[in-house]
Amino acid sequence: MIHLSPEARLSIILPNTNKALSEAIKNATPEQLETLKEGKDIKSLLTSVFQDKTTASKSDQSLLDLLKNSSAFKNMGNFSDSLQTLVKELKTSPDTAQKSAVFEHFLKNITTIDPKNLKNQITSSGVFMESKFASALQKMPDLIQTLEQIKTVLAKIPKNDAQTLLSNITALLDNPVLSKAASHPQSAFQLSEGLKKVSDILQSLIAKKDPLYSAEVTALTQKLEQTAALSEIRTTLSQLYGALLSSKTPDTDALLDSIEKLLKNINNSPAEEVKTFAQQLRNAQEGDTAKELPPLITKLGEFTNPKELVIETFLKESMADDLKSNLLSLHEELSKSDDPSAQKLLEHTDKLLTQIDYHQLLSHLGSSNSIYFPFAWDQLQEGTLAFKKTKEKKFYCDIHLKLKEFGELDLMMALYDDNQLDIQAHTEKAELKDLIYENIAELRSLLIKSGLTPRSIRIYEATETKTPLNDTYHSSEGSDMGFEVKV
């Protein structure tokens, strides 16, 4: 049984609970241990775990080097193979046979890979188990923050229905149901229903935009900027005046006054005045505070499921579909079992937990997200995936595969400007490099069909010089993604 505890995330970097760290420290030199000692007192532990980190500390880097260079992790093997072995061994004993179905659920073949399965496999991998605990605790604070942000936007909208909704949200924030929702299902249901109503009203508010921000006024503004004939300027200004009469924004009166002055002086070649007014109108349109609402409405939608608001219910469901949680439960049962096969099963369970712990540590210390290759594949000897996001909103993905036939393959990808993609591959064997080149046109075509634009695809042999993309990914600097991330 997994219990919610504020120390859950702390266990990731404590050697008595993290098997990977324990193994790594066994291989540490006296100098490395001294470095770790300097940076791992209680204060720095709490700082490291409970605050976001953008760069690795000296001790973190030392520990990261220990993990990557420790002989204990050089040949961990294929995670899916280890999981398949556990399932097979569970089936050999009547006392544990029923458990095999639980772990078979986490085995997916490479042939089933698609975006949905990939996301599910990463989410349930166990690497993010502690992150789910943190997410459960953060749910209500995040909701309150979202509602406060919506209030700030609504306060700038003069419409009566916006002000009414602002009052309703204020009342909701003061309602006791908000504080009870995390532990009482009925309160969570009431809160979710209230949030749905808020979301519906917000959607309606966006649909009823002030005339200043309408497509009609935008089109007339553009026409005014492009028109030179006085008669057309006069007509366009008159149309704008009529469209803005029902506007209730703070800028409306000043805009109407400007139009009246322009119409009075229309015969005095008011080219510069018209240009100035068009800019005044553009500036006013850019003040459309309602455009800040759509992303907040999307965020609010994350809190409308009452089951996810109750911490106990949320954790029960998320832990049921988390591999590490199930492995820990199995480990606890086996530790108390008199079954002759229990010891062997414990060894298999420990091996899998060590691999998960290893990737959790890499994720935490390397300011990225590291995970074992989450699919079963006959051609794979071992593999890992890693993800990183920089402050410049560039996304990097590093895939390391050790293939039975073709040796090692390192793939590094950078995604930026929404759909621009750079790919770099390093192959151990020339045959694999040639094979990729032969199919590069098909790869490019498939990427384009999926909505990505491949700006560059470079293939190197492992002995060739590393390029900037390689160095950028492996640098520990520039990441704003710590261990606590959502997949």
Which secondary structure elements does this structure contain, and how are they paired or packed?
Elements: H1 19-26, H2 30-39, H3 42-50, H4 58-69, H5 79-90, H6 100-104, H7 115-123, H8 129-154, H9 160-174, H10 176-180, H11 185-207, H12 215-226, H13 230-244, H14 252-264, H15 271-285, H16 293-300, H17 306-309, H18 311-320, H19 323-335, H20 342-365, E1 369-372, E2 380-389, E3 395-403, E4 407-416, E5 420-427, H21 430-438, H22 440-449, E6 453-461, H23 468-474
Parallel strand pairs: 5-6
Antiparallel strand pairs: 1-2, 2-3, 3-4, 4-5
Helix pairs in contact: 2-4, 4-20, 5-20, 8-9, 8-16, 8-18, 9-11, 11-16, 12-13, 12-15, 13-14, 14-15, 19-20
Description:
With 487 residues, this protein is an alpha+beta fold. The model is unreliable at 1-16, 35-56 and 476-487 (pLDDT under 50). The protein is flat, with a radius of gyration of 29 Å. 56% of the residues lie in helices and 10% in strands. The protein has four domains: 79-128 and 314-358, no CATH class; 130-209 and 291-313, no CATH class; 211-287, no CATH class; 379-487, Transcription Regulator spoIIAA, CATH 3.30.750. The protein has a six-stranded mixed beta sheet with strand order 1-2-3-4-5-6, with helices on both faces. The protein is built from 23 helices and six strands.
Could you give a quick summary of the protein structure above?
The chain is α+β, with helices and mostly antiparallel strands. The protein has helices at residues 19-26, 30-39, 42-50, 58-69, 79-90, 100-104, 115-123, 129-154, 160-174, 176-180, 185-207, 215-226, 230-244, 252-264, 271-285, 293-300, 306-309, 311-320, 323-335, 342-365, 430-438, 440-449, 468-474; strands spanning 369-372, 380-389, 395-403, 407-416, 420-427, 453-461. Helix content is 56%, strand content 10%.
